[in-house]
């Protein structure tokens, strides 16, 4: 029995991760706007002792709405608002939301996550993204998205402003002493006075320091500047990796960068996404997968691929021919590289490629029995490819139930996953230290 435990995040989407999830007979197509659906998913994940639930986010209607389908869910709540509701109906599980640095103000973001951390008793986490598309830029007074390097440079400054604001009050600033009339101690209040290249923020933040000190900082870009940002600032990194060897290389790469910032390897948890398609037998799992694949409409599959591979129009190419040479995208560079690598390595046509990534947009899909899934997770965890995983159910709610009832008990029997929560905050679950206040260090 090994003593190290893996972390598990339940990466939730309205009907599930598969592109055709909403069309599956047992999926809830209206899930994106159904609070009871999300409540059930969150409580199921909590029953499974997951570290966190996690929501992605985009700031535009993505894909090709003229096809009458979305390529990324378009009927969903704002994740921070949804998590505020879910905080009230859960007790232990972490609550992680994606929020973009490119189309937000640091002050507003710092305040919202601090609020979620307070109202959940220290369970919040922020997945920092820089956004990916011109469609998003068009909603914020710009014609084009920021250049890739620029938006990471803005993100570097943004995160420093946010953490600075979270330190506005020392932990013991609020004494609320009725007899003396001192509500908080003024010498424990600090004004940030940030004057940077992209942001000017005076501070202080109008909310006390949070239960976790800082909400857990997560980063999900895997390009060079993405990895540099993660190594300097993040405590968890989400990533899409197709193969064990690529995941091991990524793991060694980001962990190896930490020393350069005076950090230790255990201060950053690497969590690739895995989409498990689970059946009682191998053939049942394969049938389930095929049923989903058969529901992918070619034009929707192609639109999803075109969007994820950098926003290039692929409609003029033969679906049964190879993926053309593509220039480097200003969008998701690491994902584009993953798609091109996959197409070349497996010699896939455009059609085969979009079908291959329809399940989880480039994350690794594992099809099999609970034992097969548990074996893969163990192999990646023990093989230093991952400290944990974002579990991406193909369709919901069934996919999460199958994992919690089938795979979690196996991981627990093998000593790879907790059987009970030992702490109450997301930092406790992940084994991350609470950061001290910079003014007290
Ligand atoms: C698990 C996971 C979740 C992500 N969620 C989002 C998201 O919700 N919104 C978004 O704009 N990008 C999301 N991304 C994409 C990255 O954050 C990043 O924007 C993208 O990979 C481009 O960065 P890169 O060029 O550094 O790879 C996600 C990536 C991963 C691995």
From TrEMBL:
Family per similarity comment: Belongs to the NtaA/SnaA/DszA monooxygenase family.
Transmembrane portions of the chain: none
Domain Luciferase-like: 26-381
Pfam family, one: Bac_luciferase
Keyword Oxidoreductase: yes
InterPro entries tied to this protein: Diverse_substr_monoxygenases, Luciferase-like_dom, Luciferase-like_sf, NTA_MOA
Keywords: Flavoprotein, FMN, Monooxygenase, Oxidoreductase
UniProt protein name: LLM class flavin-dependent oxidoreductase
């Amino acid at each position: 029995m090994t003593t190290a435990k893996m972390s598990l995040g339940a990466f939730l989407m309205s009907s599930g991760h598969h592109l055709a999830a909403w069309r599956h007979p047992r999926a809830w197509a209206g899930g994106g706007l159904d609070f009871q659906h999300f409540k059930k998913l969150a409580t199921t994940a909590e029953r499974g002792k997951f570290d966190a639930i996690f929501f992605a986010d985009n700031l535009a209607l993505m894909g090709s709405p003229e096809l009458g389908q979305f390529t990324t869910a378009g009927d969903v709540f704002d994740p921070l608002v949804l998590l505020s509701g879910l905080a009230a109906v859960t007790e232990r599980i972490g609550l992680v939301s994606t929020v973009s640095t490119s189309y937000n103000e640091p002050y507003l973001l710092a305040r919202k996550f601090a609020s979620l951390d307070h109202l959940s008793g220290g369970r919040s986490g922020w997945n920092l993204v820089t956004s990916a598309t011109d469609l998003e830029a068009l909603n914020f007074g710009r014609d084009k998205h920021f250049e890739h390097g620029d938006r990471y440079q803005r993100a570097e400054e943004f995160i420093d402003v946010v953490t600075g604001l979270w330190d506005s009050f020392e932990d013991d600033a609020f004494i609320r002493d009725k007899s003396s009339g001192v509500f908080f101690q003024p010498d424990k209040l600090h004004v940030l006075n940030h004057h940077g290249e992209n942001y000017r923020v005076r501070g202080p933040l109008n909310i006390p320091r949070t239960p976790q000190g800082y909400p857990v900082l997560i980063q999900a870009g895997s390009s060079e500047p993405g990895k540099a940002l993660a190594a300097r600032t993040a405590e968890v990194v989400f990533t899409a990796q197709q193969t064990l060897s690529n995941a091991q290389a990524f793991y060694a790469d980001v962990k190896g960068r930490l020393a350069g910032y005076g950090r230790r390897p255990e201060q950053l948890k690497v969590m690739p996404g895995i989409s498990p398609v689970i059946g009682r037998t191998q053939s049942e799992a394969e049938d389930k997968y095929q049923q989903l694949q058969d529901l992918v409409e070619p034009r929707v599959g192609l639109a999803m691929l075109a969007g994820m591979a950098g926003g290039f129009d692929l409609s003029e190419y033969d679906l049964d021919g190879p993926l053309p040479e593509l220039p480097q995208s200003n969008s998701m560079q690491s994902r584009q590289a993953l798609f091109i690598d996959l197409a070349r390595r497996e010699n896939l046509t455009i059609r085969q490629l979009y079908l291959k990534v329809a399940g989880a947009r480039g994350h690794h899909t594992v099809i099999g029995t609970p034992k097969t899934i548990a074996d893969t997770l163990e192999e990646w965890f023990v093989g230093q490819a991952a400290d944990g995983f974002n579990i991406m159910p193909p369709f919901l709610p069934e996919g999460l139930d199958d994992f919690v009832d089938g795979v979690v008990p196996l991981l627990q029997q093998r000593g790879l996953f907790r059987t009970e929560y030992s702490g109450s905050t997301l930092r406790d679950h992940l084994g991350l230290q609470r950061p001290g206040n910079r003014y007290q260090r």
